[in-house]
Structure formats: structure tokens, C-alpha cells
């Protein structure tokens, strides 16, 4: 049986072992493509794969656990072992990872507890989750003949808190559930974060996260180890080989030669985990959100990250450059040619049907009524859109309306006419509408554009989505609201025989036949904002703001006869669809928010 120990060096079966790891998130890649990515990591000459485990993928609804499909972490780990890779597992309650709410399930927002703390209520939910998760992965530790070398306690906690009772509780829960491989923490490699987030007294290895200046960062990490009289191996747990991207901003790039030199500097001193090796895709509503002052800036659907494998999983220039450098540094390491997937292009797929949201809202969502508007969380909804409706009485010719305290984006319609779109920092400003009828229909479509994935705002009231206080006409709150949850997480049927009206949120249906299946990218430059469903699979958000102007469709979502349904909220659509072999990037507008 394989042994793995942390002494002055990492020791595998009693021999020094340099960890050459790459991050692949199983939940961002279609399961059919796991082998492709894992093989390419092994072909690079690396020996280990690292992955987070997102709580909100495995317990989307409280008390209901999922470990199949994109959530089949066991199969991913077993496949890694078959390929010949060891595994670093990061099954922490919070992962960051540019992932919705940092991996925390949205239902926690309705619990009276302080997340990421020693609050007993929060720890009760963590223990329940860990008992389900760890029962499945404990048998995959190296101590049981599996590939898991070590596991993480929390994630970059030194950039959030210093509650050591919390960290000790997480460690204890993991041990209670059978974890007996070495533990580690990962933080920025400077004193403040290392001190706040580490558990050296508990024998837990601190590792550092950085993307450059390896000598300097490792020197700080070594100094921290020595302050506790430890001679532990040095490891960069997240070597950032690229970066994530936000809507309305240029794609972040990193020059290949500079990256390789920075990585070489790290490998000359210690071990490394490339973050990311294959970034993948934020399918569904799982994109994260950056916290910036009073605004939260949502990230794009692609998690390409500028990684050695592109979003599709094919090797980039960085891949081959790193492979060459590794061969020069460690000529004894066996390397192989990487696998390369194909993709297809298809032009002029015709529009089959279209229908306005308001025409089918009662068929695709169950109405919930209340005196005051409720939030998503109060309605048991985690992600997507929430459609509000009430009756607006005419009280003056130029009537004043205000949405009080809402997130993240509200489209306001009166009698079917679009009045305004307000983003988070504009919600609350006056809207004036000219009314003719005594009674009018007020509709508000609110989009949850994602919860933040790091920082103090994890605790903020702004992470509750929808209308949180109410809507005012003149100086009074309006009553009697209908709510329609649009989470797009379950199959539904759309009656396309109903009416379509220009300028309203609507569904657009396209059909096409394929003789051979392969990956592709759907071009969305003629559309405004919304989501795409491919044969019922939610492949993510699009937005004309750019820079991303297409969405990746893995082969596993396609079949011979295909249906694409686009939910578009701005009244922009195309009579024909176009699919391309490569992604389309184009910064259409530089301002993320507009009035």
C-alpha cells in the first residue's frame, strides 16, 4: 500500500516526492471529457490532479445530496487513479474558485448562523454534509489504496477570518469521518494571512498561493514554517497561470515565456499545483462574482482562465511550453503527446418558434402570492430569475415608482411596455410612468447575476436576491404580489403557440440535425442578454457586454436531433443561429452597467 508523509520533504513510499499537480474541477467539465483532461495532465509529465469540492453542487437543496453526473466526484477520483495520477482533494465548506457564493449553498442564507465560523449551527450543517461526502471519498485515500494524498482544511481562510476554533472543528469533523491522510491549509504567502489561516500547532502544513516571484514568496513561507521550528516542504498550492474574466472587461492574458520562467522558479525550490490546468465552464448559473465597493461584478460563463488547456480541453501554447520546460528540468519524467478534440461549425440554423415570457409564465412556473414581495431565498429559490407582478393604480398622470432594496438587475414593465432596466447601484432611484388606465399591470423581472465568491460580502444582505423590501408608488409600499420563480433547474414545456411581443423577454427555439457529434460554440452576438438551453441542459449566461460572445457546447450535450432554446431578456434575437469551431470574443461595450 502506498504511503504519503510530510517530513522535510514530501515522502511517497519513503522516497522524496515533488508534487507536480494541475487543477481540474470535475464540476466545470462534462463527465464524458474527464478522461481527456486527466490524460493530458499526465501527458504533460505531471503526477497529481487537484480539485475543489463545491458544497452547493452536492447539496443544492437542504438535506438532498447528489453525487452523480457533474457531481460524481468518486468517479472522477477513480478515473484519475486509472490514468496514473494522485489526487489533492479540497473538500472545504467554502472554495472561492470564482464559483457562485464560493461554493456555499444558497439555502444557508435563510439559516440563523454565521458562515465560515465556529457557530455551532453552521458547523451542524457542515457535519451533515461531510458525513455524506466523506463517506464516499475516505475509501479513496492512499491509506486505503486510493489516490488521495492529502486534503485541505478550509480555503484561504487567512484572507477572511482568524477563528481557529472553526478550523479545529473542521479538522475534527473530517477526522471523525475517517480522514487520515495529511491535512494542509492554503493562503497568501505573507505573514498576516498565514498567521490567521494556518494550523501549524495542529500539525497542519501551510502552503502558499501566488502566481509569480516564487523565490520571494517561498522565502516568506519558509520563514513562517521556521517561526514554529518546522522544516516542512514548500508548496505553491495555487500557482495562477492565468486569470478569470468579468463581463464588460477585456479578456485577461498572460504571456507564455513569462509564465514558464515564473513556474520554473517555483519548481527549482518546491512543489506546485497549476491553477488552473483546465479551467472549463461555469455551466448554469454557477459563475462567481467579484466584490468591488458598493457593486458586485459578475464573472463570465467561460472559465478558460488562460490555462494550459483551453475551455474545450485542448492544449494551448502554454501547454507545450510548460511540457518542454519540465522535460529540460526533469528529463527522467515520462511525457506523451496530448489528446486533441475536434469541433464543428454550422451556419444558418433557422428560428423555429418564439414566444414571450408573459404569455407562458403561468405554464412554466407556479404562482406564489403574498402581501409584500418576497426574495428568492424566502421562496426557496437559489438561482435564476424572479418575476413579480401586481396591479398599479393610477394616482397621477406622471406616477413615481421606486424599487426599494433589490438585487441584482430589475427590468420594469407597465402594461407590457418596458419602462427601465436598473442595476444594483441604480435600484432605488425614481422611475416615472405616464398612466392612462385606472388599473395597470406592473411586471418586474429580477435577475440574480450571482453571489460574491470571496471577502466580507459573503455575510452581506446583498447576497439575498430579488426585491428585499418592496416597491413604492409615490410614498407608499404597494401590496398584493404574484411571484414566479424561473430557476431553469428542472425540465419544463413551453407552449410556442402563444403570443410573442417585440421588446419583451422571450423564448426562441431552434432545431437542427447532426450526423456526427463533436464540440461546438454557439455564437450569440445578435442577442442581448440571457441564457441558453441545449437539449434541456443549461449551458450558461450570455451578455452583449462581452468580451465573451459565444458559449461552449460539449459534445456530451448534443444528439442527432437537437433543440436549442434561448431565453433572451432584451428583445434582441436572430432569425438564424451560427455555430463555430472556436470561441468568439469581442468587447462590445466597456461599461458594465448602464441606466
From TrEMBL:
Molecular function per GO: beta-galactosidase activity
Superkingdom classification of source: Bacteria
This protein's UniProt keywords: Glycosidase, Hydrolase
GO biological process: carbohydrate metabolic process
Location of the Beta-galactosidase galactose-binding domain: 505-561
Active site: 156 (proton donor), 238 (nucleophile)
Keyword Cell wall biogenesis/degradation belongs to the record: no
Domain Beta-galactosidase 1-like first all-beta per the UniProt entry, residue ranges: 373-486
Domain Glycoside hydrolase 35 catalytic, first and last residues per copy: 9-328
One Pfam entry name: BetaGal_ABD_1
Catalytic reactions of this protein: Hydrolysis of terminal non-reducing beta-D-galactose residues in beta-D-galactosides
Keyword RNA-binding belongs to the record: no
EC number: 3.2.1.23
Family that this chain belongs to: Belongs to the glycosyl hydrolase 35 family.
Protein name in UniProt: Beta-galactosidase
Native organism: Enterococcus aquimarinus
